[in-house]
Specification:
The chain is an alpha/beta fold. Helix content is 37%, strand content 22%. It has two domains: 67-284, Aldehyde Dehydrogenase, Chain A, domain 1, CATH 3.40.605; 289-488, Aldehyde Dehydrogenase, Chain A, domain 2. It has a seven-stranded mixed β-sheet with strand order 15-18-19-14-13-21-22, sandwiched between helices. Strands 10-9-8-11-12-24 form a six-stranded mixed β-sheet, sandwiched between helices. The model has no long low-confidence stretch (mean pLDDT 97).
Length: 539
């Protein structure tokens, strides 16, 4: 039996506390404050975990199904959001910030009760380890609480009048309208909520389409969305993106596209909107983050960080290190140590303690990664680590590929999986040129110890990417730091406070100073006649 095949479990080997009692055949969806039941066709949800039979064969594990909707249902979800926003006059966009915060806090309480169920579904749907699935849930809760703190600070800082040149004004942030939210499969809860939650708390209404892989985990949240928010504030739509998203975009009624995925898909979606000047994009897209490893790099630290940076959640992260540029003088030593550490990487099922490589969620991923490796080998590269690139069903053994050169697919393409391309360089300009010529500009890592040389790299690199990491892997957090990118990597910024700005716009009420106007404004504020024009403090 193939070694990787033997890592898949027999039915009885699955821990009892993690077993799904029965498949979840979701038919419920939320539109206009009503949980409706879908009676049309459905798509099977197959876990990346396969079941091993006594004879060694592997069989798919169906964990449920989800609605396979179309144009009519997509437009119904959009109509619910449009009605709730009501040209900015709806209950939600005109609510006091403190009232919207109270709704979000209620939502947090409701889904915290569902933690175990949601974590379990993350594990089974996308093959994320139990520890990382728990971390994703907990980090999302922390993000929502941090958003509440940030919006209080933003609102309180604006709860005063300013006077300039005889004009009295109050300047606040106002919502943009209807937001279409689509998150990625690799962080289906966390990344989705990093757009949806700031969009909601700033007063926008939302149409939400879950990712294809990572849909069922939102099922336990539907009732919480319905209970915590006014009717139509959150609306869900399910089905293939090519069927349900174009009808929504073509109406021109979407004000913000919040999308985390590929730049090609984002370009297509934006072009479907008939009034592009009215569409704001908040996009986290492709990345091909590089590590530049200098001759004086601390080898043990560099290997440790590069291993984490390339293989965390199987390398299925936009922030992953996807190209290692190593100086020729230390390339041999670096490859040897990295290969030694790769041999220690634990491959297995998501519930196993210490597991680092788990089954890949996308069905075609192992074949694609194998093609990239074969292409590199055909152009003169080799797989350094023993067994690198072997696969069985959804399991794929990490592959360290060297030397990678410009004519190879691994040079340019963002491999979304556990393949580690390494390219040697003699002249530091070669490494710089790689980052400069790349279509992507999210992050880069520099490993070295010479302050002058690192400083000389920082200055040009900060004008190519949006985060330069020194002796550390690329990463998103902390969530209070700006998360964005240049070129084809992003549009808008998704840190806690920046996201609030991304989903709102500065609006103001102004008047010339005179006694009549002063009394008028004073009456409005003192008697709390306006939700926007007020000097209240959110505690």
């Amino acid at each position: 039996m193939n070694t990787l095949t033997s890592l898949f479990p027999l039915q009885e080997e699955i821990p009892a506390e993690l077993r799904l009692l029965s498949p979840i055949h979701q038919r419920a969806y939320l539109v206009d404050g009503e949980i409706r039941i879908w009676k049309g066709s459905a798509r099977k949800v197959i876990s990346p975990v396969r079941l091993r039979q006594a004879d060694g064969t592997l069989t798919p594990l169906e964990i449920g199904s989800q609605p396979h909707m179309g144009r009519d249902e997509a437009l119904a979800a959009l109509d619910g959001a449009v009605r709730a926003y009501d040209h900015g006059g709806g209950v939600w966009p005109t609510m006091l910030v403190a009232e919207r915060i109270a709704c979000l806090e209620h939502f947090i309480r409701l889904i915290c009760v569902k933690r175990r169920e949601i974590v379990q579904l993350i594990l089974w749907e996308i093959g994320k380890s139990l520890a990382d699935s728990e971390k994703e849930f907990d980090r999302t809760i922390e993000y929502m609480r941090a958003t509440i703190d940030a919006v209080k600070e933003v609102d309180n800082s604006n709860s005063r009048f300013v006077e300039q040149e005889g004009v009295i004004a109050q300047i606040r942030r106002a919502p943009l309208g209807v937001v279409l939210c689509m998150g990625p499969f690799n962080y289906p809860m966390n990344e989705t909520f990093t757009t949806m939650i700031p969009a909601l708390v700033m007063g926008n209404t939302v149409v939400f389409k879950p990712p294809t892989h990572g849909t069922l985990l939102f099922y336990p949240m539907l009732e919480a969305f319905r209970e915590a928010f006014p009717a139509g504030v959150v609306n869900t739509v399910y089905g293939p993106g090519e069927a349900v998203i174009p009808p929504i975009m073509e109406t021109g009624k979407i004000n913000v596209l919040a999308f985390i995925g590929s730049s090609g898909v984002a370009d297509t979606l934006k072009k479907q909107h008939p009034k592009s000047n009215r569409l704001r994009g908040v996009l986290a897209l492709d990345a091909k983050n590089a590590a530049i490893i200098l001759p004086d790099a601390d080898l043990e630290l560099t290997v440790r960080e590069c291993l984490l940076g390339t293989l965390s959640f199987n390398g299925q992260r936009c922030t992953a290190l996807k190209m290692l540029l190593v100086h020729q003088s230390i390339a041999e030593a670096f490859l040897r140590r990295l290969a030694e550490e790769l041999d220690k990487v634990r491959i297995g099922m998501p519930w196993e303690n210490g597991v680092q490589i788990t089954p890949l969620a996308e069905e075609g991923a192992p074949a694609y990664l194998a093609e990239c490796i074969a292409d590199a080998v055909s152009h003169g590269a080799r797989v350094i680590n023993a067994g690198g690139g072997e696969s069985s069903a959804s399991l794929f053994r990490p592959a360290l590929v060297f030397p990678v050169s410009q004519e190879m697919r691994l040079y340019n393409e963002e491999q979304f999986g556990p393949v580690i391309p390494v390219m040697p360089f003699e002249d530091i300009q070669t490494a710089l040129d790689y980052v400069i010529e790349s279509d992507y500009g999210q992050q880069v890592s520099i490993f070295g110890s010479n302050p002058s040389q690192i400083a000389a790299l920082i200055d040009p690199l900060v004008n190519q990417v949006c985060r330069v990491n020194i002796n550390a892997q690329c990463q998103r957090g902390p969530d209070t730091f700006p998360f964005t990118g240049r070129k084809d990597s992003a549009e808008g910024t998704l840190s806690v406070t920046d996201a609030l700005r991304s989903f709102s716009i500065r609006s103001m009420v102004a008047a010339k100073r005179c006694e009549t106007t002063t009394h008028l404004l004073d009456d409005i504020v003192v008697n709390r006649r306006s939700k926007f024009l007020n000097t209240g403090f959110v505690f």
